[in-house]
């Protein structure tokens, strides 16, 4: 699975909101009792090295959110899928950003509306060009994600802080009658520390000891 091929073959991105308790709290949200699921289109993907993150015109406040991304290698489907069966569909892991128009999201949330306009703009899902993806057994509960803007620390969190771990997320999606195809991506939520970026900023993010990626903001 070459990353460029994943970008070409991805049909959908399933994303998870509020999967770290501290992040839910920093945005004034309740900690969920089951996964909060939304989607981003494949057109939002931006492969590292292929250009900058482009802020939408008239956007007031675009936030960074660093996330572990799960790359699907085999079709995942079935409303009786177990956590173990769901993991068998994983090709590997990589790193992505869920760029979010925060003020737009707040307006949509206050009106009880979907988050689409806040989450789905072009280049809103920058993704590492690491080839091949990280093997599943290389990731553990102590694995740390981090993000810096202009060399200033912004986000840091370990996977054990997830409210719902990867196997449960995958099985939850399948059991909700949403099939995932090879090349599809699951974003697993972001740790606390999200914040705004502006044109000219440089975002660096990584998974300790496994990968780093860099994106500029235009």
Automatic annotation (TrEMBL):
Recorded GO CC terms: mitochondrion
Keyword Transport found: no
Molecular function GO terms recorded: acetylpyruvate hydrolase activity; metal ion binding; oxaloacetate tautomerase activity
Keyword Protein transport appears in the UniProt entry: no
Protein family: Belongs to the FAH family.
Enzyme Commission no: 5.3.2.2
Sections of the chain in a coiled coil: none
Organism in which the protein naturally occurs: Macrostomum lignano
Alphabetical list of InterPro entries matching this protein: Fumarylacetoacetase-like_C, Fumarylacetoacetase_C_sf
Entry keywords, A to Z: Metal-binding
UniProt cross-references to Pfam families, sorted A to Z: FAA_hydrolase
Name listed for the protein in its UniProt record: oxaloacetate tautomerase
Fumarylacetoacetase-like C-terminal domain location: 12-217
Domain of life: Eukaryota
Classification of source organism: Eukaryota, Metazoa, Spiralia, Lophotrochozoa, Platyhelminthes
Reaction it catalyzes: oxaloacetate = enol-oxaloacetate
